[in-house]
Amino acid sequence: MKTVFIIGFLCLIVNMNAILNVIVDDNRFFDDTFNTILEINYQVPYNGLKFERSEYGYTALLQVNVTLIKDDTEVYNQEFTNKIILTNEEKTLSNEIFLDKIILTLSLSGFFVKINFKDLLAGKDKEWKYHFETLKPEALVSDLELSTDVKKDTTSYLEKFHRNNYLFSVNTDHIYSLPEEIFIGLYYEIQNFFTDSQNKSNLIETITIQKKGEILEQFQSGIIEQEDKINRIKKISIQNFEPGYYEILLEIEDTFSGYKEIKKDYFSIRINKDVSIRLFPDIENEIKLIKYFLQSSQTNIWKTLAEKGKENFINRFWTANDPDPSTSENEFLHEIRNRITYTNSKFSHFDDGWSTDRGRIYIKYGPPDEILKLRTGFYTKYITKDYEIWKYRSKNYLTYIFIDLLATGSYRLIYSEDDDTEVTLPDWDLYLDKDFDETLLE
């Protein structure tokens, strides 16, 4: 019943203004009366949010709306807004994360949990849905919860993420980066076991790590305690593992009853290399390209950065937009490289194709769904010129008009529809014809 919802695929990332990049993970535990506690952890990278300067520093507003639906009827709704404040502008561009947790206690199955996340400043949002089933009343073990860091902490800091006086930093995407993260933190709870006359348990715990069905490591230990519920925190070394996808299996056996239960989960490992991720030798060309995808408020910091800071800025952009970090290939980077190659071959005249108006739109959104190649009419104050209408309809509703003003093959953008990042010239239609047929834009 465990699901992980990763928001952000290549076709959506290319249009970075379209979605909110949220990663959500859920885990179920018992409360003291054997109702099921549903814990929903969610994270958003700082560079996926819009920050505005405020008296406190830089502020983003993440609205969260939680709805429970039973038999097509809304039975619960709660809405709150996370006010995220950073004092360092450069940090707003980083892939460090904001992490929070929603806790619901439910006694019955069959609910649909719907959560809408919205960046109130950027207007981006995303919806997450989950079909809730309670843990079985006889369940021996809870779901497994994975973390990137486990450390002793008896303060009230991040209280929702405390486990037995430890701060448990939940890893919602289940991706671990070597060499920075060499351990997996694992948390789970055991209950419903039999005890002896001294109220002691006798459990056998087996943890198995496997890849493609092959067992790589296995750990077994006995658990003898006098608690009704046993909370377990384990740290598993991954420093000798290769990049890739792994399964983790936990088996708990109650030797008194002979009952066994297995819970499964997964994690991925990637290698972080201290190398520059670049598409251009000239760093200024690189940032010009990146600006195609970012709001001006996110790139204002560029002029204040030293050389190393500029390299970090570029690396964070490409890394943050990798749709599958568990693989060695950055699919987003690869796609943009292909688009640059195409635009340079098709649109280069006095300037490289990637830096032209048509090149910019193509790199941002890919090939149009329709291109109309036309010539201006007789009733215009300019001589007859070629122009093109580009239409995007499958993923976005966008329309652009480019005109070859100097008859050199270098087209200029004069009209855009539903794209706030582009400019439409005043009296753009006078470049075409006084009786321009606007149905061509439909």
Integer count of domains: 4
Q: What summary fits the major beta sheet? A: 5 strands, antiparallel
| Low-confidence runs of at least 5 consecutive residues | 1-17
> SSE string, helix = H, strand = E?
EHEEEEEEEEEEEEEEEEEEHHHHHEEEE
Strand content: 35-45%
Gyration radius, rounded: 27 Å
CATH architecture of the largest domain: Sandwich
Mind telling me the CATH class of the largest domain?
Mainly Beta
Structural class: mainly beta
The CATH topology name of the largest domain reads: Immunoglobulin-like
Mean pLDDT figure: 88
Shape: elongated
Please give the share of residues in helix. Answer: 10-25%
Number of E strands? 23
Q: Count of helical segments?
A: 6
- End-to-end Cα distance: 45 Å
Question: What can you see in these coordinates?
Answer:
This protein is mainly beta. It folds into four domains: 1-137, Immunoglobulin-like (Sandwich); 138-272, Sandwich (Immunoglobulin-like), CATH 2.60.40.3880; 275-347, no CATH class; 368-442, no CATH class. The chain has six helices and 23 strands. It has helices spanning 10-13, 283-290, 296-299, 307-320, 331-347, 357-365, and strands spanning 4-6, 23-30, 36-45, 52-54, 57-70, 73-86, 97-106, 111-119, 125-132, 145-152, 162-163, 166-170, 175-178, 183-190, 203-211, 214-223, 230-237, 244-254, 259-271, 370-375, 386-392, 398-403, 412-417. A hairpin with a 2-residue loop joins β5 and β6 (73-86). The longest helix has 17 residues, at 331-347. It is elongated, with a radius of gyration of 27 Å. Residues 1-17 have low confidence and may be disordered.
